[in-house]
Amino acid sequence: MSSATVSGQSLREQERAARRAERERQKRIARDEAAERKRAAKSGFANVQNPRRSTVLTVVTALFAIYCLFPFVYLVINATKTQADFTSTFGLGPGRSFALWDNIVTVFTYQDGIFGRWLLNTLLYVVVGAGGATLLAIMGGYALAKFRFPGRKAVFAVIIGSISVPGIALAVPQFLLFAKLGLTNTPWAMIIPSLISPFGLYLMWIFSEQAVPTELLEAARVDGASELRTFRTISLPLLAPGIVTTALFTIVATWNNYFLPLIMLKDADWYPLTIGLNQWKDQASTAGGQAIQNLVITGSLITIIPLVIAFLLLQKYWQSGLAAGAVKE
To answer: How far does the signal peptide extend, from start to end residue (predicted)?
Structure first.
């Protein structure tokens, strides 16, 4: 028998042995999975990917969803009512007439269209203030994560301490400082404090540490790329989820800011939506004031629509940003 025939038979035997070993391995895996499903079913889960339904968890989740969605449903229903229907009908029931479009038109025309001015003011504070805070957080967090310099630990301590201080505790000192500088009752009184986001800086620091490999930066430097080009072309795309997450936090914080403009601004022409709608709400309690709860409700609904759209469009980036660093690789 030739050596070629012997080697061919040996090869076929090896292939048959490999196939038998693979079949045995698949059988062991199937037995292990069946045993794991049986064991896990006793503890409440069929398997990791498809947990068994829990009536208690379903009820708790449903109650939490109702709790979160109830204010929005209330706004949608009552934004369709006239002022007379708002005060005379059930809060979660429809009115005698559908007045949503009329309410929207009245919101933007009431008091010479001041609501549109408040909306533009809020957009200004968000774009300049929250946008600037996001930019500073990106640059600061990236620098703290990827560069080593004296005082780095001290900066970290300051950031952690800043996060622990509530913003409302700084409102009065900020007012006194801005009053000395003559910046109260100006847009700068809203924009400058909004530029500082300790939590956003900390978030970008942690995210940059995990998302941007140091080896990748070193390779770019070896190829002769400048730090600015490396940051722009390599780091920024990798930081996209963290940037979106930080931007959402700063946008929501600036959009919903109430106490700071309350003490900083006196001129209604510079009010954001939060203060302006509160002024409309309190209008009925003033001498000769007219109750316009239907306009307050409709204005509130219009106010939250941009935030809802932003969250829906950026949801996937936001979720991946929150999960960064949660798993050790």
So the answer is: none
